Amino acid sequence: MLPDGVAATDARPIGSIVKLYVLGALVQAVEEGRIGWDDPLTVTDDVRSLPSGELQDAPTGTVVSVRDTAEKMIAISDNTATDMLIQAVGREAVEAALVDLGHSDPPRNVPLMTTRDLFRIGWQDDGALRARWADGDAAERRALLEALPGGVVDVPVTAVTDVVWTEGADWFATQDDIARAHLRLAELAATPAGEPVRGILGANPGLPEPARFDHVAFKGGSSVGTLALSYLVDRGDDTWTVVVQAAAREASGLERQSAYAGLAADAAALLAAGSRG
Question: What is the rounded average pLDDT of the residues 245-258?
Fold first, then answer.
C-alpha cells in the first residue's frame, strides 16, 4: 500500500466494496465446514435484490453454486448474489468478518445491511425508514432490519435518486480499512478454504492491460453521490500494492468518473514501468 494516501483514515461510504467482507465471511464459513464452494444456493423472492447484477432477473428456484454466486458478487457486483451469500453464512458472520479483515471501526456497520435492506431503507416510503435508521442506535437499527418484509423489493430503480449515505444508509470504511481487507483476502487465498478467492477477485481486474501484472484484484462500489475503487496489484516480485480511491458528495452526481478511474490506470502504468513515482 502506498504510504502517502490522502485522507486514508477518514471513513467514507464504500457501496459494493462491502462485498469484500462478505467474501471473507464466506471463506471463514468454508473453513469451519458450514458451507462448501460447490454447495447449491437458490434464488427466491426473499433474496432477490435490485441491480446491479443478473440474478435479480433469474426465475424463482434457479440454483447457483456458492462459487458461481461469489464470482457474480465480485465480477459484476451482483446484489442478489451478495444477499444470497449473506443469507447462507449469516449476517453476524459478515459482521465478524469486519473484524477479521481489519476494519478499524466495525460497529459503524453493525447491524450490517444487505443490499435489499439498503434499497428499502434508503429509498422506500419517501425516506421514512431512512430517518428511523439515521436516528436509531444499533439495537433499534437491528429491529428495523428484522421488521422489513420478505418478498420482492418494491422500490423502482427510478426512485433511487436521493443521496442517502449522509444519513448512514451505506457501508463505511477508511481507505486503510479497504487496503487491509484486500491484503487479508490475499492471505486467505493461499489457504485451502480460500483457494477460489484469487480467481474470483481477479475475474474483473478493473484496469487496462491487466496482463502486465501477475494478478490484479479489483472491487468497486458506487451509490448516489458516492464512488469508490480498490485494487490489489501483484507484480510477481513478492510485493503487493493496494490502490484505493473513495469520493463522496452530499449532492447526487460525481462528475468526470472516467477521469477519476483513470488515476488508478495511471498508477498501474507507473507500477508496470517499475516505478513507485
Answer: 74
Q: What whole-number distance in Å separates Cα of residue 214 and Cα of residue 106?
A: 32
C-alpha cell at 159: 426512485
Rg of the chain (C-alpha set): 18
Question: From CA 123, how far away is CA 164, in angstroms rounded?
Answer: 8
Residues 6+ away with beta carbon under 8 Å from 165: 13, 223, 224, 225, 226, 248
202 pLDDT exceeds 70? yes
Contacts of 33 (CB under 8 A, 6+ apart): none
Percent of the chain with pLDDT over 70: 92
Site of grid cell 460447490: 38
Distance CA 21, CA 170 (A): 14
Q: Are 89 and 34 in contact (CB under 8 A)?
A: yes
Domains of the chain from N-terminus onward: 12-272 (3.40.710.10)
User: Which residue, among 200, 261, 191, has the nearest Cα to 22 in the 3D structure?
Assistant: 200
- 233 grid coordinates: 496489484
What pLDDT was estimated at residue 254?
62
Can you read off the three cell numbers belonging to residue 154?
418494491
* pLDDT recorded at residue 209: 78
Q: CA 212, CA 233: separation in Å to the nearest integer?
A: 10
Q: Strands across the sheet with 215-223, in order?
A: 215-223, 226-234, 240-248
Give the per-residue pLDDT at 1.
41
pTM here is 0.93
Q: What is the DSSP string of 135-155?
A: H--HHHHHHHHHHS--SS---
254's enclosing H/E stretch is: none
Cα angle 149, 152, 157; round to 5: 115
pLDDT of residue 247: 87
Mean pLDDT across the stretch 201-207?
93
